[in-house]
Amino acid sequence: MKTLTTHKDSSQEEGTTGFSEMRFRELPLSSLEGRNYSHQRLLADRARCEAYRKAILDTVKAGDVVVDLGTGSGLLAFFAVEAGAKKVYAIELGPVIRYAERIAKRNSMDDRIEFIRGVSYDIELPELADVIVGENLGSLGIEENMLPMYQDAAKRFLKPGGKMIPSRLEVSATLVSDTGFHRRYIDPWKSSLYGIYFDTFLHEQLKTLFLAHFDSSRVVSAPQLFLSAKLDAKQTYSEINRKTLRFEIDRDTTLSGFIVYFTAELSEGVSISNGLVGGKNSWDQVYFSIDRVLSLEVGYNVTIHLCTWETRYEFVPSWRITVSDSQGKEIYDYSATRYPLLSLPPDLIGPIVPPAVDSGNRWVAYVLSLLNGNRGKRQLATILSKLDPSLSTDEIEHTLSRAFFFLNTHASIPSMAKPVLPLRDRADFLIQAHFDGTLNCKRIAEIVHFEFPDFLTPEQALERIQYVVTTNVKPTVGV
Questions:
Q1: pLDDT tens per residue, range 233-250
Q2: For position 411, what pLDDT does the model report?
């Protein structure tokens, strides 16, 4: 039986690993405030701008009312006026709206455009629109809250039979190989730099999503569709998008990660994409890296479990990659989640589902959460057998042995028959015990508060969950 090997880039000499200048850049996620993008770059993307112009000229009719979501420099609003719109409501949160107002006046369009500063969710309009247009596409297609924003706008702003630009959005993923990326951004963290090991940074680096442009020469699989959404008043928006994508390897190759990109249909026959064809544009693709470059053979299978969670404020991607050989044996497993900042309000943390931990490790964590100084192995064994009668005597004994081994090697407590862990540690272990891949953070917080009502409020429990996830459960119970 062949085992999976780690690919070594032949161009990399021993002892030469080191940092080099960025070719990739990090994907900016999170808040609507403080976006740092160049309107010059957007306006210079003629393929993007001409596609939107054609779609607007084809869709907007003389006398129409138009809503422009996230008008930015005002370009799409100006196209709508050019198409004959009698009124355009141009909505924009950022200060760039003041420049858009001046541009409108400079080009004698200010009499037909009303600029409104704010977020569309919080705005009421005096009339319904014939057309809603917007360019809220991120490199993933959906991370700028496009789906919830369009659903809300379609329901509140659009006339029956009105049209949306874009009208459809598809998000796809494909496997890629880029050994140079690992040489520049992953391998340096594994080495001694200036005689000091900085590998603590590696886990955070691997949770980073990078922006770059890949051509077909680096692609090692056919693309798979992750999401397809028709953007109209009838669209059904789901806060969580989850799908399993399977790729069969048809040639010997290497794997460094996968990319995700979008295709947006603006109108019939007019679309834009940051995919593999058409050259580089305003949007790079989003690159999800794995922890090392793998050598794959014909007949191997790669599975990507991809989940995205989004609201009007936040976007959270989670991913897992597994590799099986030609005999179906799983020989590689890697997962990561790009979580929001710890400063995120608890009510936004709540709906997120933490990554799953296997049941054996969850039982170990649960045992550790029970160590209040009143329970020894016998009492703990009785609790486990009552909670899950399907657990065998050997499984219970193995769970207890692992828990007590952890105490002896990690915890700073004296050896005793009925050990006691600090309350905070017990709460953290109870949190980990409920990482089953189905319970969201809000529900776990309720459970933790019920068990420790005098120690953590539900809001504090949510923040503690965020801390446990961010600091990674792996070092704690050997997951």
A1: 777 777 778 899 999 999
A2: 57
DSSP one-letter code for 203: H
DSSP helix, strand, coil percent of the chain (3-state; round to 5): 35, 25, 40
- Element holding 322 (H helix, E strand): strand 315-324
DSSP 3-state of 396 = helix
Residue 71 in contact with residue 132, Cβ under 8 Å? no
Neighbouring C-beta atoms of residue 449, cutoff 10 Å: 19
Q: Using pLDDT thresholds of 50, 70 and 90, give the confidence band for residue 344.
A: low
Q: Which of 241, 338, 245, 243 is nearest to 289 (CA)?
A: 338
DSSP-derived secondary structure letter, 256: E
Average model confidence (pLDDT) for the chain? 83
In the prediction, which pLDDT does 27 show? 59
Look at residues 158, 42, 55 and name the one whose alpha carbon lies nearest to residue 100. Answer: 42
Torsion sign (Cα): 7, 10, 16, 21: negative
Neighbours of 33 (CB within 10 A): 7
Are the CB atoms for 421 and 462 separated by under 8 Å? no
Q: What distance separates the 2 farthest-apart alpha carbons in the chain?
A: 84
Strand duo 210-212 + 158-165: pairing: unpaired
407-421 b/e with 16+ CB inside 10 Å = b? beeebeeeeeeebbb
Q: Are 396 and 437 in contact (CB under 8 A)?
A: no
Q: What are phi and psi of 368, to 5 degrees?
A: -65, -30
Over its C-alpha atoms, the chain yields an Rg (Å, rounded) of 26
- By CB neighbour count within 10 A (0-12 exposed, 13-18 middle, 19+ buried), where does 367 fall? buried
Handedness of CA 198, 304, 175, 255 (dihedral sign): positive
By DSSP bridging, strand 168-176 and strand 158-165 are unpaired
Q: Is the pLDDT of residue 93 over 70?
A: yes
